[in-house]
Amino acid sequence: MTRRVVIGLCVLMMMAAGTIIARAQSGRNPAWRFGVVGAYEAPDEARDLGVGWERITFDWAAFQPEGPDDFETDALEEAWLEAAEEADREVVGLITHTPTWASDSGAVDAVPNGLNFPLDNPANVWAAFVTRLAEYYAPLGVHHWIIYDEPDVRPGEGVVQFAGEVEDYAAVLWTAYRAIKAVDPDATIHIAAMNGWTDIAAGREPYLARLIQVLQADPGAAEHNTYFDSVTVRVGTATQAVSDRLAEAQAILEGMPGKTIWLETSISPALETARQQDVPLLGVTPEHQADFIVQAAALGLAADAERFSVYRLSDSEDEALPWGLIRANGTHRPAFDAYRMVIELFSPTLSATRYTRDDAEMIVFDQEDREVIVFWARGTTSVRFAIASPEIGENATLYDTQGRRRRLISDDTVYPAAFTVEAPAALPDENGFLTVAGSPYILVLDKQDALRVVYVLIDSERFRLR
Hints:
The protein has ten helices and 20 strands. It has 466 residues and is an alpha/beta fold. It has two domains: 5-16 and 354-464, Immunoglobulin-like; 25-350, Glycosidases (TIM Barrel), CATH 3.20.20.80. It has an eight-stranded parallel barrel with strand order 3-4-5-6-7-8-9-10, surrounded by four helices. The protein has a seven-stranded antiparallel sheet with strand order 2-11-12-13-18-15-16, with helices on one face. It starts with a strand and ends with a strand.
């Protein structure tokens, strides 16, 4: 017989330790934390989703195809920027692809020539380009720049997007930081998102740690804020990896105040019938994709990630796997509704705190006039949550990952009163991997003066969780 775990939340007056993640955001889109890659491809759908920002690629090779005197602004459709402005979506630019003329090899992943020259020397073609890019797009509202992508992937480990070594990427980064800040002091410079798994597989020290060491060794590092403002942590598929990768990045950045962390997630529903792979490594279903987005967003906020994004809005014909919230035929995957619900319910959060055991996971969001509790089973045992209420007859709203909701009324199941919800067990995929935790629920309650303490009851034993 399957063992059941009962988690009871009782009310107790006490101070709770929570991570403060709300910041003064007057005049900002309430959904400013939540973004998506590729919103410009389906702007009406992006507006319906409700995201507050989007990532757009600025292809250096397209802007300057023939030489440094080029600046082809039609390399990026300004209609994309206009649509973003109309929808109150902030644009974050990802700069990629070295032009053939700008390096010795002519490859798109090559290190640009001239990085050892001063910023104002035309021979430093990278500095000249990013200066021009920032000058042109800052008045159009673009003030966030990500410098290349996944420089940690080495030949033989996957798609190489930056062929240089750590020292080469450091030179690219500190050149971009100084050049862009010189013309747009309000700009935010982001270190490229890392693949992460390549370092783990190769047994290497994390790329971010190696990069920080090189940056801090530069004589101008202290004067120039170590040449970056933010780091993006990229995580795909595994629920547990979200917390692990965020904790790793935070440990690396310890002692560097003011640096922010953004979380980008991606998960491909490889088992979807319409895009069935012959032998998918991870048997992720569309329902898993929806569950993962809710879990990752909750864990990200609890870990004080400043922003959260999903890769990507729509499937791309250029990619073998389906990654989108929207299928190629325009229909929504369950993850679309899940993410829309996340944005609606999580945006007003003032602080978030994580509580975890081997059996169960819970994130509590403190909001102005309500408390939002996200919870799920971590393993292969279903978990029954009993959320204590001060009285019988209290109302609450329960959401599943599809945004379906129903009213709950507290009863006397647990003394003196409680809401009870059973979260299903996580299901291993066809290869036996337990990648995505059990399907989560979200409970929205009126805020009480008393804080809720959490107890876990296992085989009639009670353990305090919160």
